[in-house]
Specification:
510 residues; alpha/beta; FAD/NAD(P)-binding domain; D-Amino Acid Oxidase, Chain A, domain 2; seven-stranded mixed beta sheet; six-stranded mixed beta sheet; 24 strands; FAD-bd; FAD-binding domain-containing protein
Length: 510
């Protein structure tokens, strides 16, 4: 395909990376990046790079990935509740300062022959390029300009979060909650340089309002940081901060926005990264998605004979992976939004619940990578010694055969007896809604008095995961025994739900 001119709107990581790849693949084309900001100004702190993302970037462009890795900071991961902590040894987790990442990508884009234009806003409608790549972020002006064609929908999360940082390197990434007089705040914090760490802090709306942050948010001008919140959170997380201060960079409370679009391209304009889609930061960064979009777009343009076919192929390849990640991310976001309700769970078991929260990781797989954590978590679940927990490979069956005593009930294993379904103390609940939706809240609020709630519904995996998550919501709201139907093929999901205290029993269906 002959492309003479390529315009990229947005000089973030996705736009710069796409420009470099496209210039390398189309060396005779004029590739220009238009960024309204200046090259040495950015907002944000660190960017995480998981091992799979690193592999994808290495296959696409080993040279730039080597430069990124050399400027990155490796770290492990921990979860701490009060004085109890578990740590995961993970040698492939990296983080890099956003400004540093942009500097690397700017350099490599220019080295490839990309023209970088800063300090002026340009719109897709005014550019006369053969291909226009709109990498202009979550508030994409391009998506808004052609809203009828792209068909965007944007859903806001229930919780609130803010990004800030501190001027020292944490010993590892850490997930840790603190409870103040107003409620619970949860920090996701990680080091990204020898003297810098990112702090992402979340809370629920009630706590946010009780702390007065609805007022401080409203009073903080755009482009400035909410110093009232930073001062409060600095005191709240003083132990984790080790006497260091929290710093802001346009830091204000936000609700996460999940962006979806009916189409990712229109004529010669294609959306990339956050302009096309977002997934909650707890499961994968927007930077990762945007750079992987760039790889797929470059590959599609090389393989197709025409632009329309190439953009169709790009969307056909990327959409299933993005939508799958968005589904996982929604579960993860809901889990974090309700984190405060789980703080009585022993920390090793809580780490197990965290790792399996979205259906992406099984208990068996986690046990293989964290042999010092999973036995402690499963021991807490089963009320046994860690030494009594079997090795990976036998864990799923072991979980399903653990006895349970619940009120007057005694069970020799976690597969519910069929006779329990039809007792007078059992309420059967058909679940066909997302577990943390308003409709699910109505179901929980309207539950009839019962000693047992038996959850039924469709047998596909997504519906089963929904049912198991709603089970946790019912367990948190009642003292009843909670049972969920699970297809026999999803034994691993059943085991994860049981070990993570989402349900008490499961009933296997064909």
């Amino acid at each position: 395909m002959n492309l003479n001119t390529i315009a990229v709107l947005g000089g973030g990581p996705g736009g710069l990376y796409a420009a470099r790849l496209l210039k390398r693949s189309h060396p005779d084309a004029e590739v220009t990046v238009y960024e309204q900001g200046l090259p040495d100004t950015t907002f944000g702190f660190g960017v995480g790079l998981a091992s799979r993302t690193q592999r994808n970037l290495r296959q696409a462009d080993e040279q730039s990935l080597d430069a990124i890795v050399s400027a990155s900071h490796p770290h492990e991961m921990a979860m701490r509740v009060g004085d109890d902590e578990v740590r995961l040894a993970h040698g492939e987790l990296l983080a890099i300062g956003r400004a540093t990442l942009l500097s690397v990508l700017q350099r490599y884009a220019e080295e490839a022959g990309v023209i970088l234009r800063y300090g002026a806003r340009r719109s897709a409608g005014e550019l006369a390029a053969d291909l226009i790549v709109a990498a202009d972020g979550i508030s994409s002006a391009t998506r808004g300009e052609f809203a009828d064609e792209f068909g965007p929908s944007i859903a806001e999360g229930d919780g609130l979060y803010l990004w800030c940082g501190t001027e020292f390197a944490l010993p590892s990434a850490v997930f840790t909650p603190v409870t103040t007089e107003h409620g619970t705040f949860v920090a996701h914090a990680y080091p990204y340089a020898r003297d810098r760490s990112t702090f992402l802090i979340e809370t629920d709306e009630q706590t946010w309002k009780l702390a007065g942050f609805d007022v401080s948010t409203a009073e903080t001008p755009n482009g400035e940081s909410d110093q009232t919140s930073l001062d409060y959170l600095q005191d709240a997380f003083a132990k984790t901060l080790q006497g260091n201060r929290l710093i802001g960079n346009r830091t204000k409370w936000l609700r996460f926005r999940t962006v979806r679009c009916r189409s990712w391209h229109h004529r010669n304009i294609v959306l990339l990264g956050d302009s096309a889609h977002t997934a909650h930061y707890s499961i994968g960064s927007g930077t990762k998605l945007a750079m992987e979009d760039a790889i797929a777009l470059d590959r599609a343009l090389l393989a197709a004979d025409g632009l329309e076919a190439a953009l169709d192929a790009y969307e056909l390849e990327r959409r299933p992976a993005v939508e799958h990640l968005q589904a996982i991310a929604e579960r993860s976001m809901a889990w974090w939004d309700s984190f405060a309700d789980r703080m009585t769970i022993p920390v090793a078991q809580l780490m197990l619940a965290y790792m399996t929260r979205a259906g992406k990781v099984t208990v068996e797989r986690f046990a293989e990578s964290a042999p010092h954590v999973v036995p402690a978590g499963l021991a807490a679940f089963a009320a046994v010694a860690p030494a009594d927990v079997p090795a990976p490979g036998a864990i799923t069956d072991w979980i399903l055969t653990r006895p349970l005593v619940h009120s007057t009930h005694r069970f020799t294993g976690r597969d519910a007896p069929s006779g329990l379904r039809d007792t007078t103390r059992t309420a059967r609940v058909t679940v066909t809604v997302r577990p943390w939706s308003d409709e699910a809240a109505a179901i929980v609020a309207g539950l009839p008095p019962a000693g047992v709630y038996w959850l039924e519904g469709p047998d596909d995996r997504e519906s089963t995961l929904d049912r198991l998550e709603l089970g946790e919501r019912i367990r948190l709201a009642t003292d009843a025994l909670v049972v969920a139907d699970v297809p026999a093929a999803l034994r691993a999901d059943a085991a994860a739900a049981l070990a993570s205290a989402r349900v008490d029993l499961v009933a296997f269906t064909r």
